[in-house]
Structures are given as C-alpha cells and as structure tokens.
Amino acid sequence: MGEYSLGDAMKNFIRQSKLRNGIRAVQIEEVWEEIMGNTIAKYTDKIEIVNQTLFIRTYIAALKNELMFQKQQIIDRVNEKFGEKVINNVVIQ
Fold first, then answer.
1. What span, in angstroms and rounded, lies between the C-alpha atoms of 32 and 77?
2. Which of 24, 76, 77, 93 could cross-link to 57 by cystine, CB 3.0-4.6 Å?
3. 6-92: which CATH number, 3.10.50, 3.30.300, 1.10.760, 3.40.630?
4. Rg of the chain over all Cα atoms, to the nearest angstrom
5. 11 contacts: CB under 8 Å, gap ≥ 6
6. Angle, CA of 73, 25 and 51, to the nearest 5°
7. CB-side exposure of 21: number of CA atoms within 13 Å?
C-alpha cells in the first residue's frame, strides 16, 4: 500500500466520485475572475456547469455578444485551468 498526501488522496477521490461535476461547478465560480478577467467577471451574474456545459448569465447585451464570439476560447481557458476536459460547450444567457 503506497503513501499519498492528503491533497493527492482528495484529487483521486474527486476524480472517481460522482460528486465531481458538482465540485467543478462550485470551483468555476471561484476562478471565473482569474480565467476571464475582472471586467467580464464583474458583469456576469451567474456561472454554472451542468453536464459539461458552461452556462454564463449576463444582462449586458454587448457582453453577451462578445462572449458569443469567444466560446472556444472560454472552453480552452476553463479546461486548461482545471487540467482536464471539464466543459465542451458554452451557453450564453
């Protein structure tokens, strides 16, 4: 039996757990500003992940339009931040 650090044990648990998507959904809110920048984070009202789809809600029409053009960049940034394929689609609401 090998020895693991607590951090490694938690990562393994999350990787194998059905709670993984729920945990990722909470984590995306915590790192959203870091991923997208202060301005975009300030004007997005809700961010959530459901079944590998990232839902972004904002009431600013110009921001909605800009985010529509950046969908693939958003997918790439989020997946890079988490080090795995967390999302494969973005819906702007």
1. 10
2. 93
3. 3.30.300
4. 15
5. none
6. 75
7. 9
